[in-house]
């Protein structure tokens, strides 16, 4: 019998879940979602912010060396004119972290309310009160920002470029904290 040259070799070979160590040293089991799956799962609901980040990264990379093209977007430049975008981005990152981390269980500190009458098909949320929190649950706001950003980078960029994340994030966050 001859070997089928069209047999799947890369498709379907990727595991649905992987162990990932984040910058703080915490080991977690995560989904490998990719942008398409994040959109399908409804957690990438503010795609405009993400598209803006990507477009800015592409514009900065035009005419630069391959190494410079892989540089991180400086968050201070993206959000100087509209600080609300930063809040929106962090909310989206928390949704992505909640969706992708399988173990330990991670949830956003919000209470999901009934359907929002102002927007049919959507549900309103409100922040959890301290007494509504479970002490055995990990909430996204208790996860270090560097870890959440690392998971976000992993979710949208895959595993190939997370090795350089730790170095680049420290520089970007430093500029953001100075504001």
- What integer is the average pLDDT? 75
Helical content class? 40-55%
Low-confidence stretches: none
Strand content: 15-25%
Q: What shape does the CA trace take?
A: globular
| Largest sheet entry | 3 strands, antiparallel
Total number of beta strands: 7
Number of domains: 1
CA-atom Rg in angstroms: 19 Å
Strand order of the largest sheet: 1-2-3
Structural class: alpha+beta
Count of helix runs:
7
Describe the structure.
With about 180 residues, this protein is an alpha+beta fold. The protein has one domain. The chain contains seven helices and seven strands. A three-stranded antiparallel sheet has the order 1-2-3. Strands 4-7 form a two-stranded parallel ribbon. Strands 5-6 form a two-stranded antiparallel ribbon. The mean pLDDT is about 75.
Key structural traits:
three-stranded antiparallel β-sheet; two-stranded parallel ribbon; 7 helices; about 40% helix; about 180 residues; single chain; alpha+beta
């Amino acid at each position: 019998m001859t070997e089928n040259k069209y047999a799947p070799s890369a498709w379907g070979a990727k595991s649905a879940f992987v162990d990932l160590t984040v910058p703080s040293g915490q080991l977690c089991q995560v989904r490998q979602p990719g942008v398409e799956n994040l959109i399908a799962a409804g957690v990438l609901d503010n795609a405009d912010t993400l598209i803006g980040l990507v477009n800015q990264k592409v514009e900065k990379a035009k005419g630069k060396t391959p190494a410079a093209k892989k540089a991180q977007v400086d968050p201070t430049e993206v959000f100087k004119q509209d600080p609300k975008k930063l809040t929106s981005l962090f909310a989206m990152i928390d949704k992505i972290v909640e969706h992708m981390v399988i173990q330990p269980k991670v949830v956003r500190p919000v209470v999901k309310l009934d359907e929002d009458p102002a927007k049919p098909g959507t549900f309103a949320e409100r922040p959890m009160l301290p007494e509504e929190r479970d002490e055995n649950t990990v909430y996204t706001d208790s996860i270090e920002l560097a870890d959440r950003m690392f998971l976000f980078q992993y979710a949208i960029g895959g595993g190939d470029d997370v090795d350089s994340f730790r170095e680049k994030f420290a520089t970007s966050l430093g500029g953001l904290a100075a504001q």
